[in-house]
Each structure stands twice: as C-alpha cells, then as structure tokens.
Amino acid sequence: MIVYVAMMPIPAISEAPRSGLASRGPEPWKRALAEAVRDADELVDLLRLPEELRAGARRAARLFPLVVPRSFIARMRSGDPADPLLRQVLPLDAEEIEAEGFVDDPVGDLAASSAPGLIHKYEGRVLLIAAGTCAVNCRYCFRRGFPYGDAPRGPAAWEPAMRRIEEDPSIREAILSGGDPLVLTDRSIAALAERLASIPHLEMLRVHTRLPVVIPERVTDGLIAALTGTRLAASIIIHANHPAELEGDCPTALRRLSGAGIPIRNQAVLLRGVNDDAETLARLSLRLVELGVRPYYLHQLDRVRGAAHFEVPEARGLEIVEAMRRRLPAEAVPRYVKEVPGAPGKVPVEA
Q: What CATH code would you report for 110-348?
C-alpha cells in the first residue's frame, strides 16, 4: 500500500474585521479558496464524468487530497475525462501503481534543508516553504509527499531560517514557495517580505505561485503593495501548462501584476495528455507573451511517486521543443530543463 504525506489542511482564512469593513465578508479570493472542491464525488458530478472514474478518484484522493477551485473547473469541458485541465487535477487509479525510479522526494528537497522551512540547493539563493497548502493540488506535484507539518508557522518560527540567511552573505535572492505562498494573507506576505528586506545582503524576492492562474481574484491591491513595498526587487513565477488555463479573469490578474512593474515568468511541466504536442505549447507561449509573461522553463516531469502516467520521454520532449523553435520567435520558446538532485542548477535536456 502506498501512503503519502498529505498537504496540511488549509488554515483558517478569516481575519479580525476592521472598522467599517465588518459587513463585507471575506475577500473574494478567500471565499474562492474556502469553496474549492475537495470531494472526488462532487468533481465527478459537476463535470458529468463517466461513472467508472468515481471509485478510482475516491481512492487516489485518499492518497493525495483533491483541491480545485470552482473557477478553474469552469474552464473545463463537461463530460470529457481527457480535458487537459481536468487531467491535471483528477485523481486516478494510475496513482496507485508503483513505477521504478519514482520516489517521494525526487528533487532532493529534504537533503537540502538547512533550517526549518529553508531549502538551500543553489548558490546565491534560498527557497522558503512559506505555506503548506495550495489552491489547487496538481496530481503531478513534486512535493505531494513533502512533510509540510514541519514547516514554520508565524514570525517566531521563521527566525531560525532568517538567522541562517543572515549568516550567509552569498545569498542574494529569497524564493517564496510551498505549497503556494499566496494562500497567505496580504498582511502575512508583507511581514515576511519586510523581514527578508531587513537582511542587508538580500537583493531579490521571488514568488512561485499558481494562484493568479487558478484564483485570479488573489491579485489584490494589498498583494501588489506587499510585493513592491520593500527595497527588494520582486518577481513572480506562475505555473500554467495549457492555454485554456489563461482564460476568465486570469489575463486581467496578470496584467495588473505586470502593470505594477513586477516581472512575470511562466514555468510549465511537460505532461502526457495535457500539453505533449508543439501546437499546444506554441499557443501557450504566444498567449503568455501577449499577456506580458515570459515563457521561461518547460520542465521535464519530476519523477514523484504516483505521477508516472504523466511522463513524456525526453526524446519526445526534444522533438516538441525543436518544432516550437521552427514556428516561434526565440523569446517565446521556453528552456527545456530538468532538475537533478545535487546539480548546481536546472539541467538542460539535451539529445
């Protein structure tokens, strides 16, 4: 039997009401997060999926919880189990199959942990596990088995990581990851950014997030103020794998961020049955460029346990990237890379 360490339950998202605001209720993004679908039966029913998927979805969701916002579900095709957005979030029986080389920590996060919540793999930058939950649980997530319960919660718990950063003047960039750091409130993000900005040798703050794509309402004035309110040069890495994700209010959210002077890059993962063809990835890149987002990386799948059914052979990936080069301007072609534990950075996938 395969047992995964599930992501921590989403913490309470309510805040003490402020004067004159008590009657407004939670912010739209908080409501969307709270109302996300977390039940396999509900997802099957909402999208009128074939009945034979129900039992497997229930079992796989016990291994790794199902979480998907309703606005993201609204971009999926009803009745189509092959919909590329649905495939990313639908629990399947295939997740129970043991595959050689697929492990719980495929990128060596645990070995690179230098303090609670702090991962130091690459020279000049560190990654902070700022939150233990996501707005959407992608079934191929390389951290689906990460022990989020050990990550810091609150300012005092972050101090050992902050002191470790302070002790190493070679560190110039702090990366907020998770989970998804944007499940934190604007106030919490601002406090974390201010604490990092108090470390003299830090220069850059990077945020890895899926929320502007799956819950575009998360891009608030408060978030923009938190990211731009310190001396640190802030940037955002989003994660979109298919052009259909960039619909609804997502373009507005991305334009708000870029309009505030925050550079945005996209990291996609090459996924079987989702985007493993040049036409799909070319449309994704062109739409990103149109929205002011740089197509940055195309990742070879990290070989996490439970995700073998998503893997595309590297030879096929190279063919797809070469086809993209023939039809796209150079700035629209992402770098095809993979992560190798112990390597000094992302490793280009080459023939």
A: 3.20.20.70
